[in-house]
TrEMBL record:
This is Octaprenyl diphosphate synthase. Belongs to the FPP/GGPP synthase family. It comes from Allomesorhizobium camelthorni. One of its GO terms (biological process) is isoprenoid biosynthetic process. Supplies octaprenyl diphosphate, the precursor for the side chain of the isoprenoid quinones ubiquinone and menaquinone. It holds the Pfam family polyprenyl_synt. InterPro entries: Isoprenoid_synthase_dom_sf, Polyprenyl_synt, Polyprenyl_synt_CS. Keywords: Magnesium, Metal-binding, Transferase. The keyword DNA damage does not apply.
């Protein structure tokens, strides 16, 4: 398999999250300590599985967003550390559950937990992490924060079921796909951003701004992931390139290429996606069709659109280092296709 794509025309430059990392470094140290503490259990398999994924090199972007969002409104307690840890545990739990549902073999360059310990253990440890997340939310004592994160947990589960129901369905519309990724990915980004101003007792307007920022950042993030599956690299993607295709996932590049294709091309998509004929040769052909019909470029274009909405959501807020860092996150997420 030798397909190499230039996924982006006119990359913004060396976008990075180093400012976000610097601003949240001290608090993230406390988050990491809390992660290790709360992932512990006398049941030996629980910390083994939890640490397998927790230590596998994720950027921990979501908890950093929570910390920065609390800092930018002057929060000075320790509740943001517990909420950031809750957010990371919710994310980790969904990854454990996702890998079971998707029957994934690799995650961030390592074997998935389900490949080592089995599906049952992966699901149950994911449930344990969710339980620990909710215990920390309760410890913080903010009903609003608890409401936001618990609602997000329900929405994420709904998104998983929506995706399962739409599996291998090439008649999925663009709107239906957006509904899935809004629930599966964007809802947690939105909640992670909003709980910061909530515990800092910021105004409803400020809360709404961070909620919108997180939602649109999450949509952009997922659309870039959709594009990367057809031309990124395994290290950046955290899984093998083409995994979505091999698993029969109907993501936006597939939806656009299928709808814009000829009758003969649509027959190819049906064979590849609906009958599990998605081998390397089929993947190469799929990428060729996506390129012909501008499906990957348009997926990236839609990601940029949501990125601009996220940027505009923050625009009215006072200039702070945290605000600037959160804007950098938008560019970083989109620049991954460069």
């Amino acid at each position: 398999m030798g397909v190499v794509l230039n996924l982006e025309n006119g990359k913004r430059g060396s976008a990075s999250i180093k400012e976000l990392i610097g601003l949240t470094a001290a608090d993230m140290g406390r988050v990491n300590e809390l992660i290790l503490s709360k992932a512990g259990s006398d049941v030996e398999m629980i910390p083994e599985i939890a640490n397998h994924l927790i230590s596998s090199g994720g950027k921990r972007l979501r908890p950093m967003v929570t910390l920065a969002a609390a800092q930018m409104f002057g929060y000075s307690g320790d509740g943001h550390v517990k909420l950031a840890t809750s957010v990371e545990f919710m994310h980790t739990a969904t990854l454990l559950h996702d890998d079971v549902v998707d029957e994934s073999g690799m995650r961030r360059g390592k074997k998935t937990a389900r490949m080592i310990w089995g599906n049952q253990a992966s699901v149950l440890v994911g449930d344990f992490l969710l339980g620990q997340a909710f215990r920390m939310m309760v410890d913080v004592g903010s009903l609003d924060a608890l409401d936001i994160l618990s609602t997000a947990a329900s929405i994420i589960a709904e998104g998983e079921v929506m995706q399962l129901a739409a599996a291998k369905n090439l008649e999925t519309t663009e709107d239906e796909h957006f509904a899935v990724i809004k629930a599966k990915t964007a809802a947690l980004f939105s909640a992670a951003a909003e709980v910061g101003p909530v515990i800092a007792a910021a105004s409803r307007t400020d809360r709404a701004a961070l909620r919108s920022y997180g939602m649109n950042l999450g949509l952009a993030f997922q659309l870039i992931d959709d594009a990367l599956d057809y031309g990124g690299n395994s290290k950046e993607l955290g899984k093998n390139v083409g995994d979505d295709f091999r698993e029969g996932k109907v993501t936006l590049p597939v939806i656009l290429a299928y709808r814009r294709g000829t009758a003969v091309e649509r027959e190819f998509w049906k064979r590849a996606i609906e009958t599990d004929a998605a081998d390397d040769a089929a993947l190469e052909k799929a990428i060729g069709l996506m390129t012909r019909h501008g499906a990957i470029a348009d997926t990236i274009g839609r990601a940029r659109h949501f990125g601009e909405i996220a940027r505009d959501a923050l625009a009215p807020l006072d200039a702070t280092p945290q605000k600037a860092a959160l804007v950098d996150v938008i560019d970083f997420c989109i620049s991954r296709v460069g």
